[in-house]
Design goal:
- The chain is of the alpha/beta class and 471 residues long.
- The chain folds into two domains: 183 residues, Rossmann fold (3-Layer(aba) Sandwich); 244 residues, Rossmann fold (3-Layer(aba) Sandwich).
- It is built from 13 helices and 19 strands.
- The strands form four sheets. A seven-stranded mixed β-sheet has the order 13-14-12-15-16-9-19, with helices on both faces. It has a six-stranded parallel β-sheet with strand order 3-2-4-5-1-8. The protein has a four-stranded mixed β-sheet with strand order 11-10-18-17, covered by helices on one side.
- α1 packs across α2 and α2 packs across α3.
- The two termini are 36 Å apart.
- About 12% of the residues have low confidence.
- It comes from Shewanella mangrovi.
- This is Diguanylate cyclase.
- InterPro entries: Helicase/UvrB_N, Helicase_ATP-bd, Helicase_C-like, Helicase_Restrict-Modif_Enz, P-loop_NTPase.
- GO terms for molecular function: ATP binding; DNA binding; hydrolase activity.
């Protein structure tokens, strides 16, 4: 396979880096640029030069792991399933926790290249600030692997912990990448699609509290700053969701005039939310749609079927937000309650990968919450200024047992809640069915909250297109 220019440059730099006796290489490349193919080429050349014996790959999910297995097997022209005769294997990070000493002894007795996809999932500069996966890297890989190659499109963590194996400047804690290929370059080179981000807002929002006092706000930003109405309540409201779906389905229909196989992704906030959106797509917008969540059996098979099929939409809860390669995706709706910059960029990355179709538009629809507006306006920055917090090392005898870690906590805290949601619907061509008004998430409702809000004004959209030419 002919490499793209950036892939060739990165491969050459990685090999030169390793030849200079450096053991770890960190590549930052925008989602959709082709990091896996680049990594497979590095592995292939190291094997051909007799510098390694085996290759191990780790990634966040089964679906990504299977994609890596396929890419490496094709480039290395051999099995990559860990069985007798294979040159390596692709695992998930979760599988690290089940490996015994016999497995890790492979790295001590052989020259092994270890590839980490989406390395930002693994934290820890030491055992004190490592998560479970980072701890395995520190204990079993960091000093045992012949070489390690880490890949990421978002080299930071929302919990501000340092990324495993990474170097940081002192004192401003800026991560040091050995190669950077940003979205601006990828768009200019024709490697990635030029994304358009649509921020949905409303011009007149009325909020009434339990004392029957009413306040009016002219935007979602003003609403969130001036009331206890939560973002969660907006993404769960059917009228707001239906407006978003109307925009997104219209856009997909336009694209499909040129690309009949084009598809869309909706990232929902919960299984119930996803199921509800699925029903709206099918019944109200006459769209073909599928759902993939942790509750489905063999979700990776569903994703594969969608990738190779003709279904218009796939609704997901965290299953396709990162690393999953579905080039026919060109429209996406970010309706998740997770509002971190890392998650935002990973969702955007699902529509960036180019294919051979005539139309190469890429659209992301979401609400104009302050943080999402901020993220949308700085997607050209490869590494946003996000602080990294290091913990002071504590003397630990590793041989006597592993350091106990506190339970993992969600980076997505429960938002404040409201009792009842009512959106204005004058903008619609048809009235909203009564059973769709005032959807409330009981999971996040509080008995002490007694608010209602109504969107009296029309919806408005702002399109952010960072890489468009001004000429």
């Amino acid at each position: 396979m002919q490499l793209r220019q950036w892939q060739l440059e990165c491969v050459n730099r990685a090999l030169k880096h390793f030849n200079a006796k450096h053991r770890h290489f960190l590549c930052l490349a925008t989602p959709g640029a082709g990091k896996t193919i680049m990594a497979a080429e590095v592995a292939g050349q190291l094997l051909e030069n007799d510098l390694i014996d085996f290759v191990l790959c780790f990634s966040p999910s089964i679906n990504i792991s299977q994609g890596i297995k396929s890419a490496f097997s094709k480039r290395l022209d051999c099995r990559f399933d860990g069985l007798i005769g294979a040159i390596g294997c692709s695992f998930t990070y979760q599988s690290m926790l089940s490996f015994n000493e016999d497995f890790w002894r492979l790295l001590k007795r052989n020259r092994v290249l270890v590839v980490f996809d989406e390395i930002h999932h693994c934290s820890g500069s030491s055992l004190e600030d490592a998560n479970a996966w980072g701890e395995e890297i520190i204990l079993n890989i960091q000093n045992q692997a012949e070489y390690s190659l880490a890949l990421t499109g978002t080299p930071w963590r929302s919990d501000q912990a340092p990324i495993a194996l990474s170097r940081y400047t002192d004192p401003n804690t800026q991560i040091q990448c050995d190669y950077i290929y940003g979205l601006r370059e990828a768009v200019a080179d024709g490697v990635c699609r030029n994304p358009k981000i649509v921020l949905i807002d409303n011009e007149k929002i009325s909020v009434t509290d339990k004392e029957n006092e009413t306040k009016t706000f002219n935007s979602l930003d003003a609403l969130f700053k001036g009331s206890s109405v939560s973002y969660q309540s907006v993404i769960k409201n059917d009228v707001a969701v239906r407006h978003t779906l109307k925009l997104a389905t219209n856009k997909l229909n336009d694209i499909k005039l040129h690309n009949p196989n084009a598809a869309g992704l909706i990232v929902a906030s919960s299984v119930e939310h996803a199921t509800h959106i699925l029903n709206i797509l099918r019944k109200e917008f006459a769209q073909t749609a599928e759902i993939v969540t942790y509750k489905e059996q063999q979700p990776s098979l569903r994703i594969d079927a969608f990738r190779n099929g003709v279904t218009n939409w796939i609704v997901s809860v965290g299953m396709i937000s990162e690393g999953t390669d579905i080039p026919r995706l060109q429209v996406c709706c970010h309706l998740s309650r997770v509002k971190t910059e890392l998650y935002f960029r990973q969702i955007l990355g699902r529509v960036l990968r180019k294919n051979k179709s005539r139309n190469q538009e890429a659209w992301l629809y979401t609400f104009a919450a302050p943080k999402l507006v901020e993220f949308a306006n700085r997607i050209a920055e490869e590494i946003p200024e996000i602080p990294v917090v290091f913990r002071e090392p504590i003397r630990t005898d590793v041989s006597e047992g592993r350091v106990k870690k506190p339970p993992l906590t969600s980076e997505d805290p429960h938002p404040t809640t409201v009792g009842e949601l009512k959106f204005g619907r004058d903008y619609l061509n048809e009235p909203t069915p009564s059973h769709l008004i005032g959807l409330v998430s009981l999971e996040y409702s509080s008995p002490t909250a007694s608010l209602s809000f109504e969107l009296l004004g029309g919806f408005r959209e702002k399109v952010v297109s960072t890489f468009s030419s001004p000429f």
